[in-house]
Design a protein that fits this description.
With 361 residues, this protein is of the alpha/beta class. It has 3 domains: 56 residues, no CATH class; 204 residues, P-loop containing nucleotide triphosphate hydrolases (Rossmann fold, 3-Layer(aba) Sandwich); 73 residues, Beta-grasp domain (Ubiquitin-like (UB roll), Roll), CATH 3.10.20. It contains 10 helices and 12 strands. The longest helix has 20 residues. The chain is globular, with a radius of gyration of 23 Å.
Length: 361
């Protein structure tokens, strides 16, 4: 049976031949393995690639006196949290990250442009959040490390392409791949409310998330071995003339899938539609609050908040500011929405977003 090797495989093979370091060779081999057609005619080639990967890893471990290098795909966390951007081939993930952050991922009109994770810092008010653009979800073509990054992220964006006539088929294929990852994507409470300038928020949420805080699913209902992740669906290229029709069809496809109850946000990287609302939604998705500090008799610094998990207490804030403060803390004063200005509180007082605290140690 002929191998019928794809252009992506040929490209990865060329990079392997040109590679000069073990990490470069390993990256190329892993991409070759993920892009090679999976059928009987390539079984020996697949086995050979796996054998070469194993030999290179053994060689790397045997080298003495060298510091163990982290995998090329491992990305150190930065900011308030890490959000993984997963989706269809050529769905505009890289364009979205470019429009929202300082990142400059490669953007092209052909699929599988993204071959390694590309981090970008997205700013919401005075908080930086890290968004990772990942290779697309496609059966037998997604690198195995994508699963690791999705499981390790704090939240997930599942992106679909309203500008494509194939959005239904592509979405079904991407969901089939995602379904093998043992992930439970769940809606975290997102509040649309008002925009930053006080006007009504017109972002479209076509799923009623109810009034419950936190995850929508009881932990006992999650299958054994599955990892729960807060998530939302981003419908990109919403300014396409046929986007409304495709959206209605997409809702029918999503029904009964792992993402059927997630909120859907309409965005366009080209026009900027929905990007401000998406920044707010990502902040809410992380489940964090901002806490500001002040010294007695001084004004607070509102440009540099401490970012803490929802439900954090005064003691948690003291520990984040300085480990010794948690030991010597006597009480605190708080300014915020649910207290009167300068209210004295004890160590276990639960803080709210944008509270200002004055620690007394």
């Amino acid at each position: 049976m002929p191998a019928n090797l794809t252009p992506d495989y040929r490209s990865a093979e060329q990079r392997f031949r040109a590679a000069r370091s073990i990490p470069e060779r390993l990256a190329a081999l892993q991409e070759m393995l993920s892009t090679i057609p999976k059928h009987k005619g390539t079984e020996k080639m697949q086995a050979d690639i796996k054998s070469r990967i194993a030999r290179l890893r053994d060689s790397s471990r045997r080298k003495s006196g060298t510091v163990r290098q982290k995998p090329f795909w491992q990305v150190d966390r930065e900011g308030a949290g890490q959000i993984a951007l997963a989706g269809l081939p050529n769905s505009g993930k890289s364009s979205l990250l470019r429009a929202m952050s300082n990142a400059t991922p490669e953007v092209a009109d052909y699929p599988f442009t993204t071959r390694a994770p590309v981090p970008g810092m997205v700013l919401y008010q005075n908080v930086q959040m890290q968004v990772l653009d990942l290779p697309p979800l496609a059966p037998d073509r997604t690198p195995p490390w994508v699963r690791i990054l999705l499981k390790g992220a704090d939240a997930i964006i599942f992106q679909v392409d309203l500008g494509s006539d194939d959005v239904l088929e592509d979405t079904e294929a991407a969901l089939a791949e995602l379904g093998t990852y043992q992930l439970r994507l769940e809606p975290y409470r997102l509040y649309a409310g008002r925009t930053d300038d006080g006007t009504e928020d017109d972002e479209e949420y076509w799923v009623d998330l109810g009034d419950d805080e936190g995850y929508a699913t009881d932990p006992s209902e999650v299958p054994s071995g599955h990892t729960r992740k807060p998530a939302l669906v981003v419908a990109a290229k919403a300014d396409d003339p046929d986007a409304p029709t495709r959206l209605q069809l997409l809702k029918e496809v999503l029904a009964g899938t792992p993402v059927h109850d997630l909120p859907v946000m309409l965005v366009s990287a080209h026009s900027g539609q929905g990007l401000d609302g998406l920044r707010r939604a990502l902040f809410n998705l992380l489940g964090v609050i901002r806490v500001y500090t002040k010294a007695p008799g001084k004004k607070p610094d509102l440009n540099a908040p401490f970012v803490l998990p929802k439900g954090a207490t005064v003691l948690d804030a003291a520990r984040a500011i300085h480990k010794d403060f948690a030991r010597t803390l006597r009480h605190a004063k708080v300014w915020g929405n649910n207290v009167y200005d300068g209210q004295m509180v004890n160590r276990d007082h639960v803080l709210e977003d944008e509270d200002v605290i004055e620690l007394h140690v």
